[in-house]
Design brief:
Blueprint: E1 3-4, H1 16-29, H2 39-59, E2 67-70, H3 73-84, E3 90-94, H4 99-112, E4 115-119, H5 129-135, E5 140-146, H6 158-167, E6 171-175, H7 187-190, E7 194-198, E8 210-214, H8 252-268, H9 270-289, E9 294-296, E10 308-313, H10 318-329, E11 331-332, E12 334-336, H11 341-347, E13 354-358, H12 365-380
Parallel strand pairs: 1-11, 3-4, 3-5, 5-6, 6-7
Antiparallel strand pairs: 2-8, 7-8, 9-10, 10-13, 12-13
Helix pairs in contact: 1-8, 2-8, 3-4, 9-12, 10-12
The protein binds alanine (ALA).
Length: 381
């Protein structure tokens, strides 16, 4: 049996519609969107705008123009953080952040002197709103947080942070890499000013796709400037969205695939996808807890997790166990620090890290049972 449990890194397989969309874009359309006026270019343009519209609908954004395409969530987060923060600004973040947030922040701390408060992990609340409120200073500019941990699957209280941000005139930036497509998301209800997403995980698109939702009226210093196909006589970047933040020919074959992925999710509904992944996660959690020496990294859940589960095994190296799962049982997972050393410190699993299983829409109960059995054989012999 071949089992793919590395969906938090990249989802696989994709719905057949995604492969078809990329292939037919490459064969039958092929042109640059938003540049020329011929039929192929117009079709490319239609596809990009359809993807924008579909994403706006899925994420609860009021306008298509508030969706900006980027390479992935990391690219979008860099665009947001580097477009907003200035020297001496103070930023509040969570203890569960991925390097996609921590590295840009640390880099800006080193280069520009921004100041950072990391709110300690709270096993009950995830991120304690009172601790956040207490850390706000005169120069606090934003709260940056992951929507769900890529290590433990824990969902953080983004709506609560949205209320705090709005009350105190702060900007809320949410890293939705693990939640877009995996969970119902409403950026307006959440109060997010910016919500970064990636195309290649739960949105079921190809790698090299992603974007940000940006609230109307919020202006970012441009992350990349160049040709947009609009106002070409001007040597300045257009000031309207999405062109203000998009330049150069995009990954249109990828966006065509992303459109197919997002349409698939919208039809299935994120609610039902979350429910399916929760069922698998709970079954895996129950199965693994019964094996001696296994330490799960997060509670079984009460609906407050996405389909990600991490654990360690007493006296065993996670990397070795991951290799054994791959070679002996055909099970693909990710081991180590998952690009999130801060999260592992907060969860008490630094520096060795954990073994992580992450579920997708196409995983089954039979695969979970097979994997639990494989772990039991590797540990108990
Ligand atoms: N951020 C991705 C992961 O968690 C790559 O594996």
């Amino acid at each position: 049996m071949e089992v793919y449990l590395d969906n938090a890194a990249t989802s696989w397989p994709k719905p057949p519609e995604v492969y078809v969309a990329v292939d037919s874009y490459m064969r039958d359309v092929g042109a640059s969107p938003g540049r020329s006026g011929h039929r192929q270019a117009m079709e490319a343009n239609r596809i990009v705008y359809a993807a924008r519209r579909e994403l706006a609908g899925l994420l609860g954004a009021p306008d298509d123009e508030n969706i900006i395409f980027t390479l992935n969530a990391t690219d979008g987060l860099n665009m947001a953080l580097k477009g907003i923060l200035q020297a001496e600004d103070h930023v509040i973040t969570s203890a569960l952040e991925h390097n996609a947030v921590m590295r840009p922040l640390m880099g800006m701390a080193d280069r520009m002197g921004i100041d950072l408060t990391v709110i300690p992990y709270d096993p009950i609340l995830g991120m304690d709103p009172e601790a956040v409120q207490k850390s706000i200073r005169k120069n606090t500019r934003c709260i940056v947080m992951t929507h769900a941990s890529n290590v433990s699957g824990r969902i953080l209280p983004a709506e609560e942070m949205g209320r705090i941000a709005r009350k105190n005139g702060l900007i809320l930036i949410v890293d939705g890499a693990q939640t877009a497509g995996a969970l119902p998301v409403d950026v307006q209800k959440m109060g997010a000013h910016i919500f970064a997403f990636t195309g290649h995980k739960s949105l079921l698109g190809p790698q090299g796709t992603g974007g940000i939702y940006i609230e109307r009226g919020l202006s970012l210093a441009p992350w990349r400037e160049g040709g947009t196909g609009s106002r070409s006589a001007s040597d300045r970047q257009p000031d309207f969205l999405p062109d203000a933040l998009e330049a150069g020919t995009p990954n249109t074959p990828g966006i065509a695939g992303l459109l197919a992925g997002v349409s698939f999710i919208s039809a299935k509904t994120p609610e039902s996808i979350h429910k399916h992944e929760q069922t698998l996660r709970e079954r895996m959690w129950i199965g693994l807890t019964a094996i001696p020496g296994v330490h799960l990294c997060a509670p079984i859940t009460g609906g407050d997790t996405v389909g990600v589960l991490s654990f360690s095994v007493e006296g065993m190296d996670p990397g070795q166990l991951g290799d054994d799962l791959d070679r002996q049982f055909g099970i693909a997972c990710r081991t180590g620090l998952h690009c999130a050393p801060h999260a592992h410190r907060a969860l008490g699993t630094y520096p060795d890290g954990t073994i992580r299983f992450s579920f997708g829409i196409f995983n089954t109960v039979a695969e979970v049972d097979y994997t639990v059995d494989a772990i039991r054989q590797l540990i108990c012999g």
